[in-house]
Design brief:
By secondary structure, the protein is an alpha+beta fold. 55% of the residues lie in helices and 17% in strands. A five-stranded antiparallel β-sheet has the order 2-1-5-4-3, sandwiched between helices. A five-stranded mixed β-sheet has the order 7-9-10-12-11, with helices on one face. Strands 6-8 form a two-stranded antiparallel ribbon. Helix 2 runs antiparallel to helix 3 and helix 2 runs antiparallel to helix 4.
Length: 450
Amino acid sequence: MQTTRYRGLIAELRRAVIIIGLCLLAGIIVGQPLAGLVVGNVAYFFLLFREAQEFYRWLEGKSSTLPEANQVLVDVAEAIHFIRVRHRKTKRRLQQQLSRVEKSTSALADGVVVIAEGDSLQWWNAAAGEMLKLEAGTDSGQAITNFVRDPTFLAYLDAKDYSRPFQLQLTAESTRVLQLQVTQYGGNERLIVLRDVTHVTQLEQMRKDFVANVSHELRTPLTVLKGYFETFEGISEMLPPNVAKGLGQMSMQVERMNETVEDLMLLSRLDESDTLKTTALVDLSALARRVMTAAQMLSAERHEFLDEIEDGHRVLGVETELYSALSNIAFNAVKYSPEGGAIRFRLRAKGDKLSFSVKDEGVGIEPKHIPRLTERFYRADSSRNRKIGGTGLGLAITKHVLLRHQAEMKILSWPGKGSTFRAIFPRLKDSIETVDQSSARTNVGASAED
């Protein structure tokens, strides 16, 4: 095994010994052994130099013959040839795979774009070319922001938070709406999948318009009915008992329908935009205490309330929307908690976040229902909810309000052990700096005392 591996080297050593040995022998015969040794080495290295030149010519493809006398170079050439053959096979296989990928992506209805560092376009399929009006011959290497000029898209790319897809309308004149999902891989390379969601967006807008119009049309007759029922309540003593009872039940149902219409109209207004057009500083600590006070009034002393609300926390937002969102969480805790149960209100800062939470000791929610609780009209237990009342829109409103305030809602619940609803807000930078400075002063003071 070893002999086969080193056969070229052994043959070359044998050749060197023969050449140098013959020259040394000739030198000894003429009485100049050192000169013979020098001549032998020079002759051997000259021969190696010529063979190396021929080998480089063969490597460059300028010669088809190898110096076959040098077995070492022959062995190297065989190894190189083997590597070349393997490389060609690998390259051919990769080209075939790339060709299949290009064909398959070309058949996709969704657009696929690959961008490199600097947001430069590297490759795209036919669908992406049609959506973004890209030309294969001229647009490769250009920045994708030359074709998608929405500033919010540039901010989305720079933020490098691609957990949510980005939706955009290419031009103000166009009705076409695209949804972009970005995936980062390798170094700074990104894969963008574009999907035409124009039809879905139009359907969603039709739904929003329908809900808004129906709610508006229902509001007037409900107001008229409510007015009549309030009038009849004033003369209920003059009416037969069965008529008075019927009018009372009808009044309750009208009131319930009116609440549903009001919530639908609020949702319609929230649906108009995912961002707030105007904001103001809101004292979240004071707002949380207002919500807790309202929940205590609804409870009518049937529950124990625990106040763990920290003072001095503020957020940017719309106070009326925030009150609606937080009160929905609080009122649900009151409705679903047994009499005598404890309800804890907590507001505290943690890092760059503010967390408002309401924890109850109610019936709890099965895990399978939690992901759908913020859907409109979704009820985990329809029979129990009918007894308790409500429109089924409260948590949907809360979710929309929190999204508009760059906040999120988390729900923890265990059947029979109660629930915790948490609203997490981004904390104002000046509040973080103030707290950090206060902490620093406290630490300095403590060190001085020590």
